[in-house]
Amino acid sequence: MKAAIGARVIELTRGDITHETTDAIVNAANSSLLGGGGVDGAIHRAGGPEILEACKQLRASTGTCPPGHAVITNAGRLACRYVIHAVGPVWHGGARGEAELLASAYRSSLRLADEHGLRSLAFPSISTGAYGYPEPAAADVALRTVRDHLMGETSITQVRFVLFAETTLATYRTALSALACGGPESGPSAS
Ligand code: APR
């Protein structure tokens, strides 16, 4: 499924983000930047030790990465050029600023991509696995944040959400359709 925002596009696809060939892929990392399970584990396994080495150097120089923030490293053996490690919020019921922290994790990733002049970026569904963020609410935050960014000044022309489970893809499809059907002020026209 795709949604056009002017000449830019948001795409939804099911798959393994470690196979993506976009300029960068985004990792759903934790603040330690030292790897973990889920997509974090998959990226470090597929990308090899160079990525962890780069994360350790970043951690040594700038410390841990708080929720809502992101850092960028090389991509080791992966087909993409960069990995952006974004830390999403742990879900505590929704009253501890989780939505804003999740939006901030996406915005921080998009800004890092712009700082490096990247044109394409792939996101997983940040925070909806081990961190327990309900998928429908997370999908709405993710898609709105990306849409708003693509409606402004940016080098990015393509953002792809790479969703691991079919059910996650279905949830994002519903959220993107709702966003597209929100009238002209909503921006994207889904196809
Ligand atoms: N490609 C794309 N998406 C994936 C992949 C993959 N290879 N593997 C898992 N996912 C999906 C999950 O199905 C989920 O929808 O990524 C989404 C995010 O789940 P997690 O990886 O658990 O990330 P998150 O919920 O943000 O929790 C982060 O988990 O892995 C640890 O070190 C990580 O502590 C951090 C925490």
Major sheet size, sense and barrel closure? 8 strands, mixed
Number of domains: 1
Q: Which residues form runs of ≥5 with pLDDT under 50?
A: none
Which class do the helix and strand fractions yield? alpha/beta
Written overview of the protein:
The chain is an alpha/beta fold. It has a single domain (2-189), classed as Leucine Aminopeptidase, subunit E, domain 1 (3-Layer(aba) Sandwich), CATH 3.40.220. Helix content is 38%, strand content 21%. It has helices at residues 38-47, 49-62, 98-115, 135-150, 166-180, and strands at 2-5, 8-14, 24-29, 70-74, 82-87, 120-123, 158-163, 189-190. It has an eight-stranded mixed beta sheet, with helices on both faces. Helix 3 packs parallel to helix 4 (135-150) and helix 4 crosses helix 5 (166-180). The chain is globular. The N and C termini lie close together (6 Å). The mean pLDDT is 95. Bound molecules: adenosine-5-diphosphoribose. The site of adenosine-5-diphosphoribose (APR) has 26 residues, from strand 3 and helix 1. Adenosine-5-diphosphoribose binds next to strand 3 and helix 1.
Write a concise synopsis of the structure shown.
With 191 residues, this protein is α/β, with parallel strands linked by helices. The chain has helices spanning 38-47, 49-62, 98-115, 135-150, 166-180, and strands at 2-5, 8-14, 24-29, 70-74, 82-87, 120-123, 158-163, 189-190. The protein has five helices and eight strands, in the order βββααββαβαβαβ.
